[in-house]
């Protein structure tokens, strides 16, 4: 039986921390679907097409990893795809309360959905898209925070690359 999980997020941009969680999830599931949320209310730095392209570039060659955009509730997207497992990354204790609340909210909308929380390695525990965007905004070097495959997408936003 083929096992599949969805790893949702805005991936604005995708980071080495995200890839760490994807690699951990790949050890548990045959397929990991990266669900790139449109999330216009978050005012992403990159448009949805670019975020999907970056996720595809970062995971190119990774067997069993797929990338798709979605809009609306994650539970509805999961139901459309017939995926009953959500992967979420936990970097710090501060993530836990929010992620637990979202897990319970999703379960209240569909009682067949489960959420599996994975921690990145300590090396990547501090990395978030917000950190990358902040460093970019202030002209800092992000090469150690992002997959090398997405560097071309950031060139016009980088001064220290």
Protein model, in words:
By secondary structure, the chain is an alpha/beta fold. It has a single domain (4-125), classed as 3-Layer(aba) Sandwich (Rossmann fold), CATH 3.40.50. Helices cover 38% and strands 18% of the residues. The chain is built from 6 helices and 5 strands. It has helices spanning 16-26, 48-59, 74-81, 93-109, 129-137, 151-154, and strands at residues 4-9, 31-37, 65-70, 85-89, 114-118. The strands form 2 sheets. It has a 3-stranded parallel β-sheet with strand order 1-2-3, sandwiched between helices. Strands 4-5 form a two-stranded parallel sheet. Helix 2 links the parallel strand 2 (31-37) and strand 3 (65-70). The longest helix has 17 residues, at 93-109. It is globular and about 45 Å long. It starts with a strand and ends in a 7-residue tail after the last helix.
């Amino acid at each position: 039986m083929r096992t599949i999980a969805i790893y949702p997020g805005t991936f604005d941009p995708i980071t080495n921390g995200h890839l760490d969680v994807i690699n951990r999830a790949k050890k548990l599931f045959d397929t990991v679907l990266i669900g790139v949320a449109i999330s216009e209310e978050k005012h992403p730095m990159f448009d949805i097409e670019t975020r999907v392209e970056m996720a595809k570039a970062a995971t190119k060659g990774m067997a069993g990893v797929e990338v798709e955009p979605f809009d609306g509730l994650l539970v509805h997207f999961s139901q459309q795809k017939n995926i009953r497992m959500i992967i979420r990354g936990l970097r710090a204790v501060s993530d836990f309360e929010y992620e637990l609340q979202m897990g319970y909210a999703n379960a209240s909308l569909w009682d067949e959905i489960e959420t599996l929380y994975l921690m990145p390695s300590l090396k990547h525990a501090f990395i978030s898209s917000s950190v990358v965007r902040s460093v970019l905004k202030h002209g800092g070097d992000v090469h150690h925070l992002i997959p090398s495959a997405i560097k071309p997408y950031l060139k016009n936003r980088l001064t220290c690359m």
